[in-house]
Design a protein that fits this description.
Elements lengths: L2 H22 L3 H27 L7 H17 L7 H20 L6 H19 L1 H4 L5 E2 L8 H23 L2 H11 L1 H6 L4 H27 L1 E2 L6 H14 L5 H16 L7 H15 L5 H17 L5 H8 L1
Antiparallel strand pairs: 1-2
């Protein structure tokens, strides 16, 4: 079986498993955990497309998530718009913020882009508190209408969206576009010398990343039925980056697995009570220390290589095998 067919088969198995789990274990709690993990998967894969491929770390990815979520909140509660308008509106607003920050900073070298994104997220969080009359302050915006009233139906919608976004980004990452983004990560100066418009590719990848993150933020807002300034918090961005590193940076599909794995791990550790954070932190440190290239994607690559080797091994005749045993 060719490698791409093996990848598709594995992806189909994983998606099928996630689709069947709520039916085998019909629990609202499990459906909620899986829904949150799928939304985090959208955020993680969108971060990886830009930062994982180009090497320009975005420490303020929560900016796009919060913008998408607050756009959904304002549209639905203040203007009475249909909840489904929140998804394209959240994407558009996130793209505008990406252009506002990316155009001046992605032309520069060094940590300016990372610092600008981090500052943008912190400033937006403070603005949500300063203009509390309009944003609700610490309490945020409440009373959003759900996109889909059925919890299971909403989960399947988010899961389908995650699969579609991951497929689109995988196609882009494995195309000529992705090759250029990886080349920029390897040697940006050489790419410029070769006549490649490096700034265009970096900004375009940031726009795609921000758009999908904004859509995920709008979904999260309509799932929680409220929006708070915590979405802009730095810890949100750090959590997403950690998921990407655990999954395997620059692989696109790895961060999805990292997001699902860490969300499930967080829930499984609740039984440890106040020790939960310590156990979770120790587990992350061990993964990042002993597996610097990640856990999910490298594990799948090793398994795929093992299957390929076994497929190519010559069959030993029965008589030869009997003689060897004798």
């Amino acid at each position: 079986m060719p490698r791409h067919r093996l990848d598709l088969a594995a992806a189909a198995v994983v998606v099928g498993l996630m689709a069947i789990l709520p039916l085998v274990f019909p629990s609202n709690y499990l459906i909620g955990v899986l829904t949150v993990s799928a939304i985090y998967g959208i955020w993680a894969v969108s971060w990886d497309f830009m930062s994982g491929l180009t090497g320009r770390e975005n420490f303020g990815h929560s900016l796009f998530i919060g913008v998408g979520a607050y756009t959904a909140g304002f549209l639905n509660t203040s203007f009475g718009a249909n909840p489904w308008w929140s998804l394209p509106a959240g994407m558009v607003m996130a793209v505008l913020f990406a252009l506002l920050i990316g155009l001046p900073t992605l032309r520069l070298r060094g940590p300016y882009f990372a610092l600008a994104m981090l500052s943008g997220a912190v400033i937006m969080q403070r603005l949500m508190l300063i203009f509390w009359e309009h944003t609700g302050g610490e309490e945020g915006i409440n009373g959003l209408a759900p996109l889909i009233r059925s919890q299971l139906g909403f989960y399947y919608f988010v899961l389908g969206t995650l699969v579609a976004i991951t497929a689109v980004l995988l196609v882009l990452a494995r195309s000529h576009w992705g090759l250029i983004l990886r080349a920029i990560r390897g040697d940006e100066a050489t790419c410029q010398a070769a006549g490649i418009n490096v700034t265009f590719y970096k900004i375009a990848s940031l726009v795609i990343s921000a758009g999908f993150a904004g859509a995920g933020g709008a979904m999260y807002a309509h799932y929680q039925l409220q929006v708070s300034p915590q979405l802009f918090a730095v810890v949100t961005s750090i959590t997403i980056i950690t998921m990407v590193y655990v999954g395997g940076m620059g692989t696109i599909y790895g961060p999805v697995g990292g997001a699902v794995l860490l969300v499930l791990l967080t829930e499984l550790l609740r039984r440890f009570g106040e020790w939960r954070l310590m156990v979770y932190s120790c587990a992350l440190i061990l993964i990042l220390f002993f597996l610097p290239h990640g856990l999910v994607a490298p594990a799948w690559k090793r398994l795929r290589a093992l299957l390929a080797r076994r497929r190519k091994e010559p069959l030993v005749p029965v008589t030869d095998a009997m003689e060897q045993q004798a």
